[in-house]
Amino acid sequence: MIAAPIPANEKERLQKLKEYNILDTPQEESFDEIVKLASIICKAPISTITLIDEKRQWFKSKVGFDMTESPREIAFCAHVINGDDLMVVNDATQDDRFHDNPLVMKANYKFYAGMPLITPDGNKLGTICVVDSVPRTLSEEQKFALQILAKNVIALLELKLKNNNLSDTLTTLYTQSNEIERINNINTKLLSILAHDLKNPLGVIEQVTSLYVSNQISKEDMDEIFTELQKNATNALSMLNEVLQWGTSQVEGKTTDFKPLNIFEMTEKKKEAYFLLLKSKNNRLENNCERDLSFKADINMMRFILRNLITNANKFTKNGTISIATKDSDDFVEIIVSDTGVGMKPSQISRLFKWETRASSDGTSGEKGTGLGLLICNEFVIKHGGKIWVESTLGKGSSFHFTISKHLK
User: Fold this and answer.
1) Distance CA 131, CA 48 (A)
2) What would you report as the CA-atom Rg of the chain, rounded to the nearest whole angstrom?
């Protein structure tokens, strides 16, 4: 057996791993879903998200076995973090590094494929890997999928790190000011926004891989689909940064930042960002906004409002159309997000914008929600001197209307 060499930047790598504060934490659904997808896509009985500590490999999530950790010197994954690319061992019994490894001789590891988890600053924390008890290979599509899933693991770790940093900032502010109630309110909204919007990227990955496994996506479409999945992960990180910027500005007392906005261009970007989300339910997004209509608004708040209304429309629509249109007047711009979905009863509409009676129904594919997103949309619209309301017919669809004052400074 040949143990993996220690990386040249080991001290820096271990410090970065410590900063994420992820070691020895409980299992989490978001990470568990990723290893399940890895097993499904690669048709492997074992898959893990593995982090390499100073003396051990520790499994954040796993499928196919019960161990929580094992010695670093026998870890296949310890070899992976010395490179930048996917490491594939087709038959460990024929590999000089592993043929007499206890994992091969006792645990019957024959096939291994691991992709390093590389942080934005280039440190390799561990791997996402798949294991089988028989020698085998991976297809190019399966290799590419592991690369995409590794990026999504890093995206989740970045989210947790930034969330922890934000919590530390808020904790400091709690002890230094008498505005605990105000900051608590901001923190609640911030976490609600993150919980609402970060479901979509993982949901899209799960839906697309399910379609692939059930042979509803042709191999010819795979390159395009996986490219879109990469965009999906990038969009999720961009959204995270936007929300955290908004949270920081709220804590600092900067309630709004009005700048010129072209709603047509913003909608076009949303069409690209939500391509897979819409495709997963066979919906299309139509941009019927006036091309040259420009007005002042808080960009991050407007992004959140549109993101929320589009994803809600997609949640309750299948094989249909979602459209965004505008109406311009002397004092207000009216923006309408309409869908051809299931619609709502009057009793449902009456509860939408009240904190004490908020409720959220399951979507057409069983999507869950909290009802918090629309409440925050309402607050953002009020900050723009406008109002929000709904027109809906059960079985035919809904239209969410909101206005933005044209006299903001």
Assistant:
1) 9
2) 24
210 — phi, psi (to 5°)? -65, -40
Query: Residue ranges of the domains in the chain?
Result: 10-141, 177-405
> Which pLDDT score is estimated for 20?
93
Mean pLDDT rounded to a whole number for the chain? 85
Yes or no: domain 177-405 corresponds to CATH 3.30.565.10: yes
Q: Which residues of 212-233 are buried (b: 16+ CB within 10 A; e: fewer)?
A: beeeebeeeebeebbebbeebb
Q: Tokens in use for 342?
A: 């299931």
pLDDT tens string 65-75: 999 999 999 99
Residue 209's φ and ψ, nearest 5 degrees, are -65, -30
**Two structure tokens written together for 385:** 């001197």
Would you call 161 exposed, middle or buried from its count of C-beta atoms within 10 A (0-12, 13-18, 19+)?
A: middle
Angle at CA of residue 385, ends 384 and 389, nearest 5°: 90
For residue 72, CA distances in Å to 52, 136, 243, 271, 342 come to: 7, 25, 38, 45, 53
Instruction: Give the C-alpha separation, 89 to 95, whole Å.
Output: 8
Per-residue tokens: 171: 């904790």
401 phi, psi to nearest 5 deg: -110, 140
d(Cα 257, Cα 336) in Å, to the nearest integer?
Answer: 23
**Can you identify the CATH homologous superfamily of domain 10-141?**
GAF domain (3.30.450.40)
Q: What is the pLDDT of residues 14-57, one digit of tens each?
A: 999 999 999 999 999 999 999 999 999 999 999 999 999 999 99
Tens digit of each residue's pLDDT (9 = 90 or more) over 166-193: 777 766 666 655 555 655 665 666 665 5
